[in-house]
């Protein structure tokens, strides 16, 4: 057995063998969260921008909603990118018990602000949407400025997993969706 821990996880859990991705993130995330092709939920053509009032249709049942209805605790760390223009589209309203991460498509690793896209010709960011880093429904971007987001994600994952082991064995099953942004623009590596 080369990977005993992974093999044990697989034998005691659920193994997903197929998932179809799209060349853009919002459609792929929509497919993962619903189990449907992105075209069946209306998100096949584009990513959700900061100035768009759109998202994964509220009538769609998400994977964390389904799992939570079956006794799972559900957590998301990292990138959501499935709508945020009203609280109804926020991860905490779509089945997740906890959320640490950002709503838009791209987020600075250090100052946690979201930008629309980079104009390569002029080498400047177009459409800065401001601070976008959340702990549940509280924007904590300014408080966490200067801390690399990958460090924040790792610490939160350790906290969530650690809390499961410190609770009684009857705490119930857990679903942790870790959607890290690396490697995703804007690429802002550590100085070293």
UniProtKB/TrEMBL annotation:
In which domain of life is the source organism classified? Eukaryota
Species whose genome carries this gene: Heterosigma akashiwo (Chromophytic alga)
Q: Which family does it belong to?
A: Belongs to the sulfatase family.
The keyword Chloroplast is assigned to this record: no
Key words of the record? Calcium, Glycoprotein, Hydrolase, Metal-binding
Which InterPro entries does the protein's record reference?
A: Alkaline_phosphatase_core_sf, ARSB, Sulfatase_CS, Sulfatase_N
Which ranges form a coiled coil?
none
Give one Pfam family, short name only. Answer: Sulfatase
Occurrences of domain Sulfatase N-terminal (ranges): 3-188
Keyword Glycoprotein belongs to the record = yes
Full protein name: Sulfatase N-terminal domain-containing protein
Q: Name one GO molecular function term.
A: metal ion binding
What Gene3D superfamilies does the record point to? Alkaline Phosphatase, subunit A
């Amino acid at each position: 057995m080369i990977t005993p821990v992974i093999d044990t996880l697989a034998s005691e859990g659920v193994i997903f063998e197929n998932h179809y991705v799209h060349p853009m993130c919002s459609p792929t995330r929509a497919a993962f969260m619903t189990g449907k092709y992105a075209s069946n939920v209306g998100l096949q053509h584009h990513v959700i921008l900061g100035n768009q009032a759109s998202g994964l249709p509220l009538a769609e049942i998400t994977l964390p909603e389904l799992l939570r209805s079956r006794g799972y605790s559900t957590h998301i760390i990292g990138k959501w990118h499935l709508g945020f223009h009203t609280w109804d589209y926020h991860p905490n309203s779509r089945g997740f018990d906890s959320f640490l991460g950002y709503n838009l498509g791209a987020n600075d690793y250090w100052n946690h602000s979201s930008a629309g896209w980079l104009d390569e010709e002029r080498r400047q960011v177009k459409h800065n949407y401001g601070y976008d880093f959340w702990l549940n429904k509280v924007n904590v971007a300014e408080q966490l400025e200067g801390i690399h987001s990958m460090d924040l994600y790792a610490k939160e994952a350790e906290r969530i997993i650690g809390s499961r082991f410190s609770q009684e064995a009857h705490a119930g099953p857990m679903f942790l969706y870790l959607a890290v942004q690396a490697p995703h623009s804007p690429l802002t590596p550590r100085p070293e």
